[in-house]
Amino acid sequence: MAADALDFSLPPQPATNDLNCRLLLRLILRWILAVVFSFAILLQSFAMLAHASRKSGPPVLRWDESQPGCTFSKTEDGKYSYATWSGDVGVIMAVDAREVQIIRHRIEPLFGVLLTIRYRGDAGMELATDGITLQFMKHFKIVLPAIDPDGYTEKIQTDANNLDDETRRILEKHPEKKETREAREQDYEKSITELIEFLAKHSLRPVRLDRAMPEAAGWVFFNTANKWLGGWKTQEEFVLRVPLDGKIFEFPFKLPPTPGELLLRKRD
Q1: What does the alpha-carbon distance between residue 13 and residue 65 come to, in Å, rounded to a whole number?
Q2: Which of 114, 119, 128, 180 has the most crowded CB, counting CB atoms within 10 A?
């Protein structure tokens, strides 16, 4: 047999590189499927926990004009009024139609709502104010707690004292500015004094309601000096939440309720 007729090559073998690639791809796919499956289980667990949390939390009574016991009205003093009853508890929320516009003219950037709480039961009910919140739906849905009127009074009094010290230092260096600076400070002090008096007399306070005292009313304010609150929209949307009697009374509202609407105060 001729030498060149002999074939000393190895028998055909499968491509090792291709086989390794296929095995690697299978491992990667299995790992991806395992991760996706685990993530799905995790999401389901979070959803179940959230659902359980909502079920275990206090029931939410959301104001809706189409529901029994819920009403809406426009009062002659220029306010939108929302009211609802649940069991022995009634809540009325009133807000000035121009509240968003008024904020910029106040000495402090406070958003205010007037709350009236009525109780017609026998056992009595504690009214607390520290859990009341306001959510700004068009501003990252930020939630602000109601201010503590006494704590806020201390804050603005401290600010006023600091301004007085600053004015004194400026006048020592620039006595020619005395008349202008003193006039400006007098206006500021007058406005601050009026605000402090209003907070002291008209803020909603914690109280026990019963047959002897079935109603409490007062203003609740929220400090809008927050980096997440930008310029006001043409129509703003809010949600006020008031925890009472083991429930959360929820008031979704818009200012103005109808785009372009402006409710004017009735002149005396």
Answers
A1: 80
A2: 119
Q: Which position has the token pair 């006020």?
A: 240
In the block, residue with structure tokens 């939440």: 241
Distance, in Å, from the CA atom of 239 to the CA atom of 260, rounded to the nearest integer, reads 20
d(CA 85, CA 176): 61
Give the list of residues 6+ apart from residue 156 with CB closer than 8 angstroms, or none: 108, 192, 195, 196
Q: Residues 171, 176, 182, 188: what is their CA dihedral angle, to the nearest 10 degrees?
A: -80
User: How many CB atoms sit inside 10 A of residue 119's CB?
Assistant: 23
Q: Is residue 265 part of a domain?
A: no
* Among 25-39, 51-65, 212-226, 234-248, the least confident range: 25-39
Of 156, 144, 151, whose CA–CA distance to 195 is shortest? 156
Which residues on adjacent β-strands are paired with residue 145?
A: 133
Same-domain status, 228 and 202? yes
75-127 pLDDT, tens digit each? 888 999 999 999 999 999 999 999 999 998 999 999 999 999 999 999 999 99
Domain match, 241 and 111 both: yes
Span of 85-94, 135-144, 156-165, 239-248 with lowest mean pLDDT? 156-165
Q: Are the C-beta atoms of 75 and 81 separated by less than 8 Å?
A: yes
Nearest alpha carbon to residue 128 among 145, 144, 142: 145
What is the Cα–Cα distance from 133 to 152, expressed in whole angstroms? 16
User: What is the pTM (predicted TM-score) of this model?
Assistant: 0.75
Amino acid letter, 245: D
**Residue span of the structural domain in which 46 resides:** 15-57
- pLDDT for 55 beyond 60: no
pLDDT digits (tens, 9 = 90+) for 30-39: 777 766 655 5
